[in-house]
Design goal:
Chains A, B: GO terms for molecular function: lyase activity. 2 copies of one chain form a homodimer. With 271 residues, chain A is of the alpha+beta class. The first copy, chain A, has helices spanning 11-19, 44-56, 121-129, 135-138, 171-181, 229-238, 261-266, and strands spanning 34-43, 63-66, 89-93, 96-99, 112-117, 145-151, 161-170, 193-194, 220-226, 242-246, 252-257. The first copy, chain A, contains 7 helices and 11 strands. The longest helix of chain A has 13 residues, at 44-56. The first copy, chain A, starts with 10 loop residues before the first helix and ends in a 5-residue tail after the last helix.
Chain lengths: 271, 271
């Protein structure tokens, strides 16, 4: 057995351990600098509507790859079999959490469609490399997240408020963070708001709806990014008969180097 | 005689009228969408030091082109003869304004070097095209400008505070403006600050050091860009024996379409 806390540096080696049931822990820090993704699996009409929802809301739902119906592979992201290759899944029935298995082969259906969605890891790495403080990481906390009064564009049964994550930083860092994140449309892109939280319906910055309380220093301004919790909340609210997602922190590890993700997957040059 | 208020749409035709002394007015709105530039002419060691000053301070002093010593042309910007092709010049002797001629052929020296510097016209056009309000234009005022407590990097006798221009706008527009202006490094690039003016030494936003008082609406945040007044103030303070600049509003009109300036002059793709 491999200790989940020992670092596995190759994404393919990590996925092989996950596939064999030897690695069932959180993926942060594993798989080298490979892009990690949020996973959503839906069936039939729910899948069609969710694809339209992602297309209509690219900031919170940046699509890295969409599987063919019934096909558990995502070849543009690597040699991936989604029935086995995520360390822990969540199974939702009628919007309620039903199970947290490490393998979903027994649940796979021939009308299931898988969605790999970008997450904030990529741009947080880029911010850190640029010397911009990512305060929740330094403090060893989860990023604070908030429901806003901004609505997503509905598609089929999927709708609901935009959920945002917040990172506080000095103004000059905020400007640089905006220019950096604009180059990562597959990792939520540029922020959606900065400054006064009440303008987007956030009553108390110190009481996030998800994650941990923020670390805000004198001179910091709050900067808000569209967050991957948005589609999760929309799925829970829509109560599809069956939905499968990754468990929090237990991501889909791809073969794409983070720094090359935008260029390889979109043709957008990341500079 | 051509009325200076009639629009001349070709930059070459406009420069021909300027060269013949038929056009002596402000250039805003003339020459089609051609890039307009700030002009600085210095001689000998002053020119060498000013080039180093611009290199060290690219945000306030974005260099579009630098002439060869003694050569009054700038071939990368068009068929330009700087002894005649700006509608009105300012001549500075020992830091004091000495004259405002429409031709400087009699003053030209064989050790003079000309500097064409980018200005904010390019990015303001891009903001307007993106639907972002440029409040001083709507109000028919000059942009408000402020001396800050941020120092430029000195070079030779050139030094002094960074001067910034301010444009107030809602937060979401500020984020988009940052992503747009980052693509225009030759027009001062991304802002240098946003939010609290006191953080960069501005005591009263309603009392600018140059230009007109700002139009700030509820929900606006102030956004600050490095400003071309910075090198002008540095030159005045340095008191070189002789300096020649354009007169305010009477710019050097180039042949470069504004939208293509970054790509043509730097190889940077403007997206």
């Amino acid at each position: 057995m491999t200790d989940a806390r020992s670092i596995v540096s190759s994404p393919a080696a990590l996925r092989a351990q996950i596939r064999d049931g030897q690695f069932t822990g959180p993926t942060a820090g594993h798989g080298g600098d490979a892009l990690q993704a949020n996973l959503v699996i839906l069936a039939g009409d729910d899948a069609s509507a969710f694809l339209r929802f992602c297309q209509a809301n690219p900031r919170p739902c940046p699509l890295l790859a969409v599987g063919e119906p019934g096909d558990p592979t995502l070849p543009t992201l690597g040699d991936i079999d989604l029935r086995h290759d995520v360390p822990r899944y969540r199974v939702w029935r009628d919007g309620a959490l039903a199970d947290e298995p490490t393998d979903i082969a027994a649940l796979w259906q021939d009308d299931m469609v898988s969605f790999a969605l970008g997450c904030s890891f990529s741009f947080e790495d880029a911010l850190t490399r640029a010397g911009i403080p990512v305060r929740h990481q330094t403090a060893g906390r989860n990023v604070p997240m908030y429901r806003t009064d901004l609505a997503t564009r509905p598609a089929g049964r999927f709708s609901g408020p935009l959920v945002v994550s917040m990172r506080a930083m000095p103004a000059a860092d905020a400007i640089e963070a905006i220019t950096i994140c604009d180059r990562f449309p597959l990792a939520h892109g540029a922020p959606v708001h900065l400054g006064d939280p009440s303008e987007i319906g956030i009553a108390d910055l110190h009481a996030p709806d998800y994650g941990d309380a923020p670390d805000i220093r004198p001179g910091d301004i709050p900067v808000f990014w569209a967050c991957g919790v948005t589609p999760q909340a929309a799925i829970t609210a829509a109560k599809p008969a069956l939905a499968i997602t990754h468990a929090p922190g237990h991501m889909l590890v791809t073969d794409i180097p983070s720094g090359q993700a935008e260029r390889r997957l979109t043709g957008v040059h990341t500079g």
